[in-house]
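thread: overnight batch results

M.L. [08:02]
morning all. the overnight job finished for the chain we discussed friday. pasting input first so we're all looking at the same thing
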Amino acid sequence: MKVKGVLKIVLLVAAAVMIVWLPIILVVGVWIYLVWMVWKKKTKIFHDQMEPKLAERRLKMLKALLLVAGISLVGSIVGIIVHNALYGLSEMEEPVSFVIALVALVLFTIATMGGLIIFLKGRRQQDKGIPK
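M.L. [08:03]
and the structure it wrote out:
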């Protein structure tokens, strides 16, 4: 009886960890892929029919979003480490760095999704009747 209860608890914890960490791993993977594509291929990541000026604008916007995402990822990691260090030293909850870490993580997710949208819109070829 005790083994079944422990097994249920272990499975619930594993499911909770997967629900939390799987999206974070996916978003970080998308961010790494986009950074690699921008670094290696420049404006060639967009389709050939796109105007060069539009491709340059989209590339600048994509670079800015990826930069914001990278800075916010570092900020969230630093905020979590500072929060845990302060809690370990003082045994008191310190919510400021924790809130900063959470806001930075949300900003990272939003910036990465924005970069993905720009990337995918640029890859899609436009129909001749639709303005670029």
